[in-house]
Structure formats: structure tokens, C-alpha cells
Design goal:
Elements (H helix, E strand, L loop, with lengths): L1 E2 L11 H16 L4 H9 L4 H19 L2 E22 L13 H13 L5 E8 L3 E8 L2 H9 L13 H11 L5 E7 L8 H9 L2 E7 L6 E2 L1 E2 L2 E2 L9 E2 L6 H5 L4 E4 L5 H14 L3 E12 L2 H15 L2 H7 L1
Parallel strand pairs: 2-3, 2-5, 5-6, 6-11
Antiparallel strand pairs: 1-2, 2-12, 3-4, 7-10, 8-9
């Protein structure tokens, strides 16, 4: 048996001092009370030595519990295969179109939060991009922090125009140097017609691209700070989804999925991503196999403490 806090056991040396202190106090009380009254006050029909023993045993058990006794069964090695995934959010102005409630960008955030529920043994990094890419969070398994950081991506980031998919690919290539590379992009596809350069770059660097396309063919109106975006002539700008970006996912061995109001699509997407990566990295963890024993002395401490005030011996006397 081992103790997590063995130095606490030194407090057991105080037990004899408590015994002497209690004896001394009882001797002082005898000076001020009649012997018969004192016997009723202190002893109540039970040997005072017995009660003191119960109380001090209770105190000793508390000290023993605080020292955290345990049985050490050694270490257990756990090996998990971990995949790495970069998630990129398109933060160009077109992502603030209102054809999907409340807008395309906020919808992408909600889908990302739903995706995290289904990812297992996966480290996730987050970038945001428009004409340039920005690191939001490095690779991590701390999904709570990811949710916080992504939820705070707002209008302050929207200072650049355009949807530069190549910027997202280059940032992913830097983040995932020594592992299988997977990039999930939440985007409406921008307005580009030819993605041959992006496809070539992704293939050369072994990046599988997964596209979650958000937008409608009918299109929507962009609102930034509650103001409708207009062109130079004052006409309201209407932006549509760009289905041509599907080629980037298909030709890089990834997957293309259009938006859905159902949450099941994120479960399907998580399964597709993890199965295609097939866990690229082995993560080893060592945990200690311990059997905690502190509850045993703690239970005895409570029992002896109660007995020091209301002993079984009292019941026998009253019976």
C-alpha cells in the first residue's frame, strides 16, 4: 500500500497530545462541578475513556484518509491513432448573404460545432481566409477552446475581399507538415470558374480537400453591420453558390457536400473524413492504475465519531 501524501501521517503524532489535553480539561471541570453532576455531563453512563478512545480513533482515521492511501497496480499504456484536420472558414463578404438563416457564415459556425461532437481521436486546427489566410487555432483536441475561438470570429475579421482557396491550401500545408493532410472548407465557392491551380497544388502536397458548400442557387443579399452591400452603381449585390468548386474536392480524393438543415450530415461527414484519413498518427498515453482506499478510513472515522457522542453502550444502559 502507498500514500499519495505520506507527510500527512505525521499528524498522528498529535494524537497523544490530544489525549493529555482532554484529560487536563476534565480535571479542570471537576473543580467547578459537583461529582454527580460532572458524571452526568461528561460520562452520561459510559466510560469516559471509551468515549475518548472513540474520538481519537476517529481523528486518526481522518488523518489516514487525508494521506490518500492507494494500491499501485502499475502503469497502463494506451495507444490511439490520431488524425489531423484543418478546418477553414471562408470569411469573404459573400458568406454574409442571407439566403441561409441567419447568414452563411453563422450557419457554418453552427455546423462546425455539430461536427466536433462526432470527431473522435482527431486533432483540429482552424484557419479563416478571404484574400489571405489567418490562423485561428493550432491543432488541438481541446474542442471547448475551439468553440470559443470560432464563436468569436466576427465582422472585425472582414476587411479583405475575395475567396482565395489557394491561401487556405498553403496554410494547411504549413500546419500539417508531417502527417496526412486533410482540409475541410466551409465556403460558398466564391466566384472563381477554374480551380486547376488549387487542384494541382493539393495533389502535389497530398492534401485531401473536403468542401461543405453553403449557399443557394437563388442567391442572397449581403449585409455587413446591418447595411446591404451595393455595387458602384448602387444596385443591391446578390451572390450565389458556386458549384464549380466541387471539382476541387472530387479530384483531390476528398468529398463534396452541400448544406443541409439536418444535423445528421455532420455525422456522415465526420465518418467520411476519419475513414479517409485512417488515423495517420499514433498517440501514446500512460495512465496510472490505482485503487483508492481513502473511503475506508473515512467511513470508520464517521462511525467512531458518532460513537464518541452516542455510544452503543448508551443503548445498553438505557435498555
Amino acid at each position: 500500500m502507498h500514500f499519495a501524501y505520506p507527510f500527512v501521517l505525521l499528524l498522528l503524532l498529535l494524537i497523544p497530545l490530544f489525549w493529555i489535553y482532554i484529560d487536563k480539561n476534565e480535571d479542570d471541570l471537576k473543580k467547578y462541578f459537583d461529582s454527580k453532576l460532572f458524571k452526568k455531563m461528561v460520562v452520561r453512563g459510559v466510560s469516559k475513556k471509551t468515549r475518548k478512545k472513540f474520538f481519537l480513533i476517529s481523528l486518526a482515521m481522518v488523518i489516514l484518509a487525508l494521506s490518500r492511501p492507494y494500491i499501485d497496480n502499475g502503469n497502463i499504456e494506451i495507444k490511439n491513432r490520431v488524425s489531423n484536420l484543418v478546418v477553414a472558414f471562408d470569411i469573404s463578404k459573400s458568406m454574409f448573404a442571407n439566403d441561409i438563416y441567419p447568414n452563411r457564415f453563422e450557419f457554418a459556425k453552427r455546423k462546425f460545432f455539430a461536427l466536433l461532437k462526432y470527431l473522435k481521436n482527431t486533432q483540429v486546427g482552424v484557419i479563416a481566409f478571404s484574400s489571405r489566410a489567418f490562423l485561428v487555432a493550432p491543432l488541438t483536441e481541446d474542442f471547448s477552446s475551439l468553440k470559443y475561438l470560432v464563436s468569436h470570429i466576427g465582422f472585425d475579421y472582414i476587411s479583405l475581399k475575395g475567396t482565395n482557396i489557394m491561401a487556405a491550401l498553403e496554410a494547411t500545408n504549413k500546419l500539417l507538415k508531417d502527417s496526412k493532410k486533410a482540409l475541410l472548407i466551409f465556403t460558398d465557392g466564391g466566384d472563381k470558374k477554374d480551380f486547376s491551380k488549387e487542384i494541382e497544388f493539393a495533389k502535389e502536397n497530398g492534401i485531401k480537400v473536403f468542401i461543405y458548400a453553403i449557399g443557394t442557387k437563388k442567391g442572397g443579399v449581403m449585409k455587413i453591420n446591418n447595411k446591404v452591400v451595393r455595387d458602384k452603381n448602387g444596385n443591391v449585390v446578390i451572390v450565389h453558390i458556386n458549384p464549380l468548386i466541387k471539382s476541387l474536392a472530387k479530384q483531390t480524393g476528398g468529398f463534396y457536400q452541400e448544406y443541409s438543415l439536418s444535423s445528421d450530415d455532420m455525422k456522415e461527414l465526420a465518418n467520411i473524413i476519419e475513414s479517409s484519413l485512417n488515423s495517420s498518427k499514433i498517440k501514446e498515453e500512460v495512465i496510472k492504475d490505482r485503487v483508492e482506499l481513502f473511503k475506508i478510513p473515512l467511513v470508520f472515522a464517521i462511525i467512531f465519531f458518532l460513537m464518541s457522542f452516542y455510544s452503543i453502550l448508551d443503548l445498553r444502559k438505557r435498555g
